[in-house]
Amino acid sequence: MRPPDELTAEERLMDPFPWYETMRETEPVRYDESRDCWDVFRYDDVKRALSDYETFTSTGASDFDPNGNLGTLLIDENPPEHDRLRGVVEEYFQPGNLEELRPSIRSIVDDRLDRALEDGREIDVIGELTAPVTVLTISRLLGVPEDDWDLVRQWSGAMTGDEAGRDAIMEGVGKMYEYFGNLLDERRQNPESDLISVIAGSEADDEPTLSPSEQRAFCVFLFLAGHSTTTHAVGNALWTLEETGEYERLRDGELDRRTVFDEVLRYRGPVQSISGRRTAEAVELSGTEIPEGERIVSWIGSANRDPDVFDDPDQFCPDRRPNRHIAFGFGPHYCLGAPLAKLEGDIILDAVTDRVERLEVNEGPSEPVELATSYGFDRLPMTFHPHN
């Protein structure tokens, strides 16, 4: 979905927060005729739209796969169908299980830092650090052989780039469907300790939990969803820490990494809005009635700055506790990969503070993500000054 007219300028994409404030105060629920949807801005309303699946249904309202190229996806289903799909892999994404991956992810991060810094101190944080780390991590988690990592990453880039048209998306889906179909066949015969093996071997009462086409779609979805938002979240963290002067306190151990990353997710979350909901019946939010069958856009970025919920919401408070942000959504569709994103953020911040005395954002062309739903950079030049 295209951005609202109010966010079409680049400066508004990077600073939508004054507009959010105006909308919360004057039009917390408004119909946008040009986009044929209802925008929702206040925390309580957004939280309800994300969690009350009987009133705000996900079925037939996809914002992840609007053309239906991937088939059945958990993000586009209500319970109990959603629970059937999610239950196949949910245990795998529990924080305790993912923690076992810490040494493996740290080795990926250290390798990317070595490569990025071998030619000097200037680094594109997105292209040379956060994007490669998140792509390689989800590839390893799924069980994609290392020889194929670059190939799968290229398909993903062609499918998710801002200029990707329908033909490019269809071509990418076809290639990834075929690729993951072959891997799934291999894992059924020779299972390993990876996520593709879990998906390939999923059964209930001696019957496959997922059909072969659902298994392929699940693998494609997990790969695509498993890296892009985390890429921008960690980039936003390094940018914000430098901008606010809090990097030194984090480096010196005065701040808790997990608390800092949680505040980044609230303050500059990588997902600003979710549009994958439709009203199953007429409903009232903040005194405004929305008819049945209407598309809803939930502005998470606005909800996370709502002063009725957060003290000093426009201030970055790296030790904010409690932090009731909904950067990962809320309710049944709470992001499956949230524990993985938090683990990756923690590991990258740990590795950078271990090796870098100070950092600075370079003067020059950073490249904001050109989507109102996302927030962050596709390119972020910084200078890393290593410890002496």
From TrEMBL:
Keywords: Heme, Iron, Metal-binding, Monooxygenase, Oxidoreductase. PROSITE patterns: CYTOCHROME_P450 (PS00086). Gene3D superfamilies: Cytochrome P450. The keyword Oxidoreductase applies. Pfam families: p450. InterPro entries: Cyt_P450, Cyt_P450_B, Cyt_P450_CS, Cyt_P450_sf. One of its GO terms (molecular function) is monooxygenase activity. Belongs to the cytochrome P450 family. PANTHER family: BIOTIN BIOSYNTHESIS CYTOCHROME P450 (PTHR46696:SF4), P450, PUTATIVE (EUROFUNG)-RELATED (PTHR46696). This is Cytochrome P450.
